């Protein structure tokens, strides 16, 4: 049986970047690969920057943000030895996002995101996330702080 994406296990998520139910969104899919979380995403032409052959910086930031926050949520469930999405629900939000753009990101193929947790406590998770082009060039790097919010935050 293939693994189920973190996002497909998080109930009622309508986020533009990671909500599976948001028809207008990016609908990313993240999975564990050892101690890292990975996501492969194929952007559309309308996600371009000024030059049409490159990915827009805001989309890059959204990919890094959403992949990292969903990784923090998945890790919080893992630390509690519970399946992702089980009640009581765990929600995290972005407290800090710092993206460094290293190279223009070509739109000629999928991008790969790799996030790793650098510190995790009961309320806060720190992550580093890199975005790679199809030629394995690191194009952007993000530092993310995700914080837990009460499960009532969602409703």
What this model shows, in words?
The chain contains 1 helix and 6 strands, in the order ββαββββ. It has about 160 residues and is of the alpha+beta class. The chain has a single domain, classed as Hotdog Thioesterase (Thiol Ester Dehydrase, Chain A, Roll), CATH 3.10.129.10. The N and C termini lie far apart (about 30 Å). The mean pLDDT is about 95.
CATH architecture title: Roll
What is the name of the CATH class?
Alpha Beta
**Structure summary, number of beta strands:** 6
So how many helices? 1
Keywords:
alpha+beta, 33% strand, 15% helix, Thiol Ester Dehydrase, Chain A, 155 residues, six-stranded antiparallel sheet
């Amino acid at each position: 049986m293939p693994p189920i994406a973190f996002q497909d296990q998080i109930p009622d998520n309508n986020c533009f970047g990671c909500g599976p139910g948001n028809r207008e969104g990016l609908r990313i899919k993240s999975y564990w690969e050892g101690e890292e979380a990975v996501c492969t995403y194929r952007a559309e032409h309308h996600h371009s920057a000024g030059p049409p052959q490159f990915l827009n910086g805001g989309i890059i930031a959204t990919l890094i943000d959403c992949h990292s926050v969903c990784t923090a949520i998945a890790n919080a469930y893992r630390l509690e030895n519970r399946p992702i999405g089980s009640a009581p629900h765990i929600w995290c939000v972005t407290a800090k996002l710092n993206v460094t753009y290293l190279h223009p990101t070509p739109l000629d193929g999928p991008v790969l995101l790799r996030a790793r947790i650098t510190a995790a406590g009961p309320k806060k998770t720190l992550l580093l996330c890199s975005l790679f082009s199809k030629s394995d060039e690191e194009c952007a790097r993000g530092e993310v702080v995700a914080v837990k919010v009460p499960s009532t935050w969602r409703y």
